[in-house]
């Protein structure tokens, strides 16, 4: 897609709607600028696609699969480039799809699940947080989620609920356990076509424009990376602020420290959108 046509298409859908009044709270700084968080999952299997992901311009988070061939190397490179590093923790799914090494499954007792999670975290240097890889079964189970959040709390990490099922309890349990947490708003590439990625990216911009922020998850597919390398440089012109998850959560913490902070603004990611 030519740059001018892409910019016009994004601007037409993302630029018109103003933020709701709740986002205009005195003392919170420039919160009228919509914030966009981008996470790229499944990084670590391929060195080439991993490095192409790291070459995406601006702030983003890379979610690394534990014990993958290149996860440790790419995590070190991501850190050096200022990208956010997180563990993409494999969790049991209802379709019984293969999870790979480091999987968290419902047959594990608390001690074994937490041991595996700690090993997974140790395999990804500089991980500041975690999100779930698959997980439609495990994230719906309260006890395993409580065990996961205990480990994250003890290590001072945050959690992103990828929301692979509408019945997920992960975000709720994280909140109960005092673990900083967000939820995914949009999956960019559930279908791997340029048209689908473009449509979902525009949907993410609309969500961010309306609510003040949006968290988008994609994968290191060629179609996704091709699109993002073209689209991300346009976001400054469209008035969007891009942040890593850690930076966004720090903004939230700063907001909470202000007496005037509106809790509806702080918990923008309490909302539940369609599965993407």
Automatic annotation (TrEMBL):
InterPro entries: Divergent_DAC (IPR006837), Glyco_hydro/deAcase_b/a-brl (IPR011330). The keyword Signal applies. It comes from the Bacteria. Keywords: Signal. Residues 1-23 form the signal peptide. GO terms for biological process: carbohydrate metabolic process. CDD domains: CE4_DAC2. Gene3D superfamilies: Glycoside hydrolase/deacetylase. The keyword Mitochondrion does not apply. PANTHER family: DIVERGENT POLYSACCHARIDE DEACETYLASE SUPERFAMILY (PTHR30105:SF2), UNCHARACTERIZED YIBQ-RELATED (PTHR30105). This is Divergent polysaccharide deacetylase family protein. It comes from Marinobacterium aestuarii. The lineage of its organism: Bacteria, Pseudomonadati, Pseudomonadota, Gammaproteobacteria, Oceanospirillales.
């Amino acid at each position: 897609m030519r740059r001018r046509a892409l910019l016009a298409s994004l601007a037409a859908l993302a630029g018109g709607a103003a933020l709701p009044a709740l986002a205009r709270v005195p003392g919170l700084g420039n919160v009228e600028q919509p914030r966009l968080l981008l996470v790229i999952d499944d990084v670590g299997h391929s060195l080439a696609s991993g490095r192409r992901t790291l070459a995406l311009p601006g702030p983003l988070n890379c979610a690394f699969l534990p014990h993958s061939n290149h996860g440790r190397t790419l995590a070190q490179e991501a850190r050096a480039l200022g990208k956010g590093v997180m563990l993409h923790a494999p969790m049991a799914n209802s379709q019984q799809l293969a999870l790979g090494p480091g999987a968290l499954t419902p047959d594990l007792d608390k001690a074994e699940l937490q041991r595996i999670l700690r090993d997974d975290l140790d395999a990804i240097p500089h991980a500041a947080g975690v999100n779930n890889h698959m997980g439609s079964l495990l994230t719906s189970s309260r006890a395993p989620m409580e065990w996961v959040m205990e480990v994250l709390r003890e290590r001072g990490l945050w959690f992103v609920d990828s929301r692979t099922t509408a019945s997920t309890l992960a975000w709720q349990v994280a909140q109960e356990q005092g673990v900083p947490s967000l939820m995914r708003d949009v999956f960019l590439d559930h279908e791997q076509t340029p048209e689908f990625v473009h449509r979902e990216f525009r949907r993410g911009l609309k969500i961010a424009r309306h609510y003040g922020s949006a968290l988008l998850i994609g994968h290191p597919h060629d179609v996704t990376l091709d699109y993002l390398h073209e689209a991300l440089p346009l976001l400054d012109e469209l008035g969007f602020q891009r942040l890593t998850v850690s930076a966004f959560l720090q903004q939230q913490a700063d907001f909470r420290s202000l007496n005037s902070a509106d809790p509806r603004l702080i918990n923008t990611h309490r909302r539940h959108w369609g599965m993407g």
